[in-house]
Amino acid sequence: MRFAVIPALIAVFALSAPSGAVAAQSSNVKSIASIPTLPAAISINFIGDTMFVSTVHGVYSYDVSNPASPQLLGALPMYIWENEDVSVDPVRKLLFISRDPRGFTSPATGGDQFPYGAVHIIDVSDPHVLTQINMFLVPAGHTTSCVNHCDYIWTSGPYANAQTQPQWHGRPIFATDVRDPLHPVPCPAPIDTDHNFGKNDYVHDVQVDAAGVAWVSGQGGVRGYWTSGRHFDATRHAMRIATGCDPVPYAGAGTPKSATSSQFMHNSWRDSRRRPDVLLATEENIVSDCKTSGRFVTYSLSGTHDGQGFRPETDGTATMKVLDTWWPENQPGSTGCDSSHYFTERADGITANAFYTQGVRFLDTSNPSDIRQVGYFVNSDSDTWAAYWHKGYVYVADFQRGVDVLKFEGKAGEARTVRAPRVVHAAQGPALQFSRSVFGGLCPLHVGAAVTGR
Question: Is residue 98 part of a domain?
């Protein structure tokens, strides 16, 4: 069906806009604009100067050619959970929406309740009129990501249905050929079925770097795959052609186990041109306990290009080296701790990181062995899910506040913001086990202060 902007619908959402929030922000961060009429904002993407915002109540398009005055263009009202990392095809003007197998409930049901998720394909060639052109079922659905310039999409997460999918624990990647979006073709077999130290587990999301490597984050670690071109496959000991259905392992491995890590890797990024052997990644563990809440981490990929993170004889023990770790404890602007979530990186190594109730943190990773906070934007009502660099501005998806537009005026290599000494907690007891019963497979709807998982 075709939908244009519905003013009454927007007015209803405006009633729930946050008010009276107390803000804390560093002097080098400026608030440029806000869209409080988009509560439950989860993810954002762009085609040129058109911003697409995915929320639990629909998808919205905005003209952001003037960042200080975003203009609503169109809306596609639909209840959608969760579409946590909305993907766009800027050439064919398509938007891909993933529907989680958990459906839409609050609090979320366990991830093993349903066998199927879905993908919706939306034509956004006219951003005033967003049109669904197809929808199909897939055995996953927490996130869906474009690979090979959106010729294929990789859909992943959450946990498997024990009755209908007993062969899986967590859902691996299910790839689909969408070169003809009206006739999508599923790939013959799932991908990345041994992600957690050689065992199948919850694969969460995929980010593709400028070299075309698809970085797969999930329980146990992060691993990268070539999806096109001819490459050496260390698991098959031969050169072969990579495809979106049959990728070639590239690099990456498990994340080191510790008493303060859940090892649930949420998303990752590599600047393949500037520092190809450094991987940035977030661990998600949604607790307010600073000893164990999810961290932002830099890893070295050195030594993982020989396939040790993929080969059956080594993937059970292979890990990447940690370069540095950052979390909000005792940092300026902090009121405590919360898990890291989505981030994006500027070309000079400044990342804009979402930390849920701890807001947006601007981190200097130009020296990946010394992550430094250089700015922050935190509000008393923050529930920040993602922060996106776009043409020099940062667009923030916040579940409570809607969308904030920020301008960061700092530079990499400048003095860090003043902070108290970091408290380092000694490791005690056995390594944490990621609990599907507690988290529901990530991420249940945030319905109040008592909710501990998203």
Answer: yes
Report if residue 68 sits inside a domain: no
How far are the Cα atoms of 91, 124, 287 from residue 52, in angstroms, in the given order? Answer: 15, 9, 30
Which of 168, 246, 153 has its CA nearest to residue 203?
A: 168
Which of these, 311, 186, 136, 130, lies nearest to 237 by C-alpha position?
311
Using DSSP bridges, classify how beta strands 174-177 and 152-156 pair: parallel, antiparallel or unpaired. antiparallel
Structural domain count, the chain: 1
Closest CA to 412 of 347, 367, 357, 350: 350
Exposed e or buried b per residue across 50-75, where buried means at least 16 C-beta atoms within 10 angstroms of its C-beta: bbbbbbbbbbbbbbbeebeebebbbb
Averaged pLDDT, groups of 10, the chain, 454 residues long: 34 43 90 97 98 97 98 96 95 97 63 82 98 97 97 95 89 98 98 97 97 98 98 96 98 92 95 97 95 97 95 96 97 96 97 98 98 97 98 98 96 63 37 41 38 34
> Which two structure tokens, joined as six digits, stand for 31?
């608030």
143 is a domain residue: yes
Give the bridge partners for 402, in sequence order. 398
Contact 130, 123 (CB under 8 A): yes
Kindly report the pTM of this predicted structure: 0.89
- Amino acid at the residue 95: L
Which two three-digit tokens encode residue 308?
């040790």
Cis omega (within 30 of 0) for bond into 443: yes
Range of the domain at 139: 84-164+173-187
Asked whether residue 99 is domain-assigned, the answer is: yes
Name beta bridge partners: 239.
232
Please give the Cα distance from 426 to 229 (Å, whole number): 46
